[in-house]
Amino acid sequence: NEAGLTIHTIAVNVSALQLFRGDLVRRLREILAEARVPARRLELELTETILLQDAHEMELRLGALSELGVSLAIDDFGTGYSSLAYLKKLPIHKLKIDQSFVRGLPEDDGDRAIVSAIISMGRALHIEVVAEGVETSAQRAVLQQMQCGHFQGYLCSPGLPSAEFRQLLGKSTLGLAQFAPEMPAT
Q1: What's the rounded Cα separation, in Å, for the pair 58 and 1?
Q2: For residue range 106-122, what is the model confidence (pLDDT) as tens digits?
Q3: 3-state secondary structure of 2
């Protein structure tokens, strides 16, 4: 890119309306070609409630997106009407543990149990797991102990305008990894 920085993944939230547009795959293919971004660098974040639509239709739509090469993530996992059946039926690549469960770490036993269960389930199903809303080193440490592969949140950085984000990435050849060398930031 023009700044000389490599972005590994671009994550985009997708609404139900966008997902059920008949031309979504075609439009994504065109946008990716125009931007010269490989499909594997695009991650679509879906909420659990979207996944509870018509199961057959959802399987077809997500299958087409997966065949295009984009990754599919379930955002705010655990807060919707969870149905574990879709984790084995749909081509989901990532679970993002909702910050409401991370917020109570490391003290809250209930949050620890839920987060640990989601991480274990993700690992068993070979689905990447990301903890959202990590704000403290203590939260990061307990997530590491639970073998959570990635995290995001204010411990890394608050949301930034693009110019400040480029500046942040330019501070180190490791990019955001400098903020959490023991555990990749997402």
Answers
A1: 34
A2: 999 999 999 999 999 99
A3: coil
- Residue 59's CB is within 10 A of a number of other CB atoms, namely 14
Kindly state the tokens that stand for 58: 């959802």
| CA-wise closest residue to 135 among 86, 181, 77, 179 | 179
Q: To which H or E segment does residue 10 belong? A: strand 10-13
pLDDT value of position 8: 81
Instruction: State pLDDT tens for residues 12-22.
Output: 999 988 988 88
List the structure tokens of 138: 């203590």
Q: What is 119-180 written as a DSSP string?
A: HHHHHHTT-EEEE----SHHHHHHHHHTT--EE-STTT-----HHHHHHHHHT-TTGGGGG-
